[in-house]
Structure formats: structure tokens, C-alpha cells
Amino acid sequence: KRHLKDYYTDDELKAATRRCFDVYVKRHFETLRHETISKEFADKYLKAEGIQHLDAALKNGKGAIILFFHFGSFFMTLPALAFRGYRAVTIIGTPELKKQSWAEKQVYNIRKDERYQFPSKFLRADKSLKPIIKSLRENELVQLDYDGRDGTKWIPADFLGQTGYFSPGALRIAAMTGA
């Protein structure tokens, strides 16, 4: 079995570890800012590259699925798109409130508070596919976290020299809806 040290020097691994830690901390600070995000904030700080691909996908009228990995704050994708006029939803997993720290519980409560919602929606993955299908039929963007903990039929694949497990659910939804 190969390891990352088979591909990278110790200095490269230390630098990558530091960058990962930086992203982790930034992600949580971005999440804490969630309730203060405005159109002005999104225009100034949130880049949206490759929008032409979303526009092309939405032309078929069947919605579009954005596959997202947990590299950075997935909360930032929605305002970056929603404040640019895209109707977007994100699928969130079952909250593991018993395992969360005090700060994580506060963020979860902020996310549920309607006073702080920007123009997008969160849908729970553990409930039903009906709201997801409805959003796609209404030609909305649906953000699915490809590496989340929810899912049932995981497929192993080589990922950065290790085995990663990915849920095929997003691909099944795309095939079922034409998104």
C-alpha cells in the first residue's frame, strides 16, 4: 500500500498540512460569518469561475447538479451563486449534534435561523429525494457534497494515493432527472 510520503518530500507534506490547517480554520470562520453575508460581501469576496458551464447546463431546463468536495467552506458556494441570480439549494447531511462542539452547535442554529438566510435553501439528505427532484424540475442548481458521510453504496477509488470512498447518489439523481 502506498502512502503520501511515497509521492512527496517531508517539506512538501508539511507545507500541504499547513495549507490544509489554514483552509480548515478559514472554513470555520467563513461559516461563522454566514449570517452576515450580503450581496455586497458576495460581490467583493466570493469568486465564481466557470459560470458559463452552469448557464449551459441550465439551458436544458432540467436543473444542474454541482458536485462539491469538503475542501473549504461549502457554505460559500451558495451565496456566490445565489447573489448572482441563480436559484440554488444545497443538500446537507444529518446533523450530528451529539458530537458537535459548542461552537459547531451555534453555527448549526444560525444556519436554521430564517433571519440569516441568504437567497438559497438547505435540504436534508436524510429526509426524502422529493425536494431535490422538485428543485431540479424547477431548473435550480443543486449542490451535492460528493464525499459526505451520508450515502449507502460507496464506491472505492484511488484518490491522492489512498483509497477514497464516493457516493454514486449524485450520478443516479442526474441520470434519473436529466440534470
Give the topology.
Elements: H1 10-32, H2 39-45, H3 51-58, E1 64-68, H4 77-82, E2 88-92, H5 102-112, E3 121-124, H6 130-137, E4 141-145, E5 155-159, E6 162-166, H7 169-177
Parallel strand pairs: 1-4, 2-3, 2-4
Antiparallel strand pairs: 5-6
Summarize the structure.
The protein contains seven helices and six strands, in the order H-H-H-E-H-E-H-E-H-E-E-E-H. The protein has helices spanning 10-32, 39-45, 51-58, 77-82, 102-112, 130-137, 169-177; strands at residues 64-68, 88-92, 121-124, 141-145, 155-159, 162-166. The longest helix is centred in the first third of the chain and has 23 residues, at 10-32.
Q: Structural class given helices, strands, pairing? A: alpha/beta
Low-confidence stretches: none
Residue share in helices? Answer: 40-55%
Give the DSSP E fraction (strand runs of 2 or more residues): 15-25%
Largest sheet strand order: 1-4-2-3
**What is the number of helices?**
7
General form: globular
What does the model show?
- Helices cover 40% and strands 16% of the residues.
- It has 179 residues and is α/β, with parallel strands linked by helices.
- The strands form two sheets. It has a four-stranded parallel sheet with strand order 1-4-2-3. The protein has a two-stranded antiparallel ribbon with strand order 5-6.
- The longest helix is centred in the first third of the chain and has 23 residues, at 10-32.
